[in-house]
Amino acid sequence: MVATDVAGQAARRARRRAVVRAGTRPGRAPRSWLAVAGALTVTVLVACSSGSGSNPDPVDLDRATDNGQLPWTEVLLPPQTPTTVPFGPPGTDLPSEPRPAGIRVIGDRAGLYGGSPDRVLCDRQRLVDDLEQDPARLQAWSSVFQVDDVRNYVRTLTPVLLRADTRVTNHGFDDGHASAFQSVLEAGTIVLIDDHGVPRVRCVRGSPLLSPVVNENADVQGDPWPGFQQDRLYVVQPSNLAMTEVTVVDLMTGGLSSVPIGSGPQQPAERPNPVAPVEAQAPVADSPPAVVQQAAPRPAPAPSPEPAPPPAPAPPPPPPP
């Protein structure tokens, strides 16, 4: 019995020494397991946030010019909104392999978007003005991006046209708060992107956008447009480095053009002054019609002088005496 107790005590001391050498104390979990547990916790949180539950949020279909759910502002698009998706030059084709979880593209990819260095696509000044008229709306909008200065933030954004159907987390303004929902933006939609190429505002009615919560089992709500394919939806991922310009397919020429990111620190985020149309001048009622100066006619040649009459005959000689 004594021998058994001694042997048991020796075994316990050996286990305790082994635990101490491993860097833990009796009664505490090893650090390596704590790290794994932390990683698993993060993984579970990410999985939940990516919509992997049994009932993922449905995905709404938003056409290019629809007002959408719960708009934030008045229409920010120009009167003649371009919605035709340009084909682009060779080498600008987007990946087309079907992927149920979304086709991932990087935001600085050349030709990912359409755009124009000259044409106004989105009224950013109107966006800021409309938000600032309603403090609750302004606060809700800024809370999506966690920014304090909305005006300066909008100045860093750049208008482009989506060349492909794109997944986003959209937001409506509901009862004083931003209400998030999953959405597909139709190709041809005008959006504002940030300096990493990620869509941030849907320009139709100013809806703020974030990266999507992708779940291949999510139901789609709404009427699909021609060409819509649920396994060919694009998910834009931020570029590694901030861009100073974005290379777009020019909406006017079909070639590649560089569009500066934002409006620059010295330029206000407002629509350029439109060029005044040339008005036709109405004719003055009392003005006589313009006289066209004609060339003077050549003078007629002088008439040829008439021939002199023949000399009169000599008188007859006088008679002789």
From TrEMBL:
Family annotation (Pfam families) = DUF6777
**Which stretches does UniProt call biased (Low complexity)?**
1-11, 272-297
Composition bias, Pro residues:
298-321
Residue numbers spanned by region Disordered: 1-23, 259-321
- What is the top-level taxon of the source organism? Bacteria
Q: Where is the DUF6777 domain?
A: 105-259
Q: Which residues cross the membrane?
A: none
InterPro entries reported in the protein's UniProt record: DUF6777 (IPR046704)
Put simply, this protein is called DUF6777 domain-containing protein
Q: Which organism is it from?
A: Rhodococcus opacus RKJ300 = JCM 13270
